[in-house]
Design goal:
Blueprint lengths: L1 E4 L2 H5 L3 H21 L10 E2 L2 E2 L13 H4 L1 E3 L4 E3 L2 E8 L4 H6 L12 H5 L1 H13 L1
Antiparallel strand pairs: 1-6, 2-3, 4-6, 5-6
Helix pairs in contact: 2-6
């Protein structure tokens, strides 16, 4: 799960509707980036027949597309203390073990990559959504 948190001081300057629209737009962009980029990358790890796996530390390499198909922006916006929070959730039984790793498998972190690599696009999506 990727969690998007907004600075309430900036958020308070917007109407409730504009802020929620902006957050939903940013979450939609996060989901788009996850599916089009992060979960669509070719791995550089071991090759298994026609599939090349990801190497430890890389996002999981695309295989059947199940992880991508089950990664979605949650439409529910909620308050958490002074923050307003939305989520992009990977609803696959192996998403968390892939992201964090296990005793037998090295981590293939992927849920936080759009926030690290695409901050400008996410901010622009928020602003566009807030203006609607």
């Amino acid at each position: 799960m990727a969690k998007v948190t907004l600075d309430m001081a900036a958020f308070d300057r917007l109407t409730d509707g504009a802020a929620e629209n902006g957050l939903r737009a940013a979450l939609g962009e996060y989901e788009r980036i996850m599916k089009a980029d992060v979960l669509n990358r070719v791995g550089s790890g071991r090759e298994y027949g026609k599939h090349r796996a990801s190497a430890p530390g890389e996002p999981p390499a695309k295989d059947l597309g199940n992880l991508s198909a089950n990664t979605n922006a949650d439409p529910t916006i909620r308050e958490d203390g002074n923050d307003v929070v939305g989520q992009v959730v990977a609803n696959s039984e192996y998403a968390l073990p892939l992201h964090t790793g296990t005793e037998r498998i090295a981590a293939r972190p992927f849920m936080d990559l759009p926030a690290k690599e695409n901050q400008r696009e996410l901010t622009e999506a928020f602003v566009r959504g807030a203006k609607q």
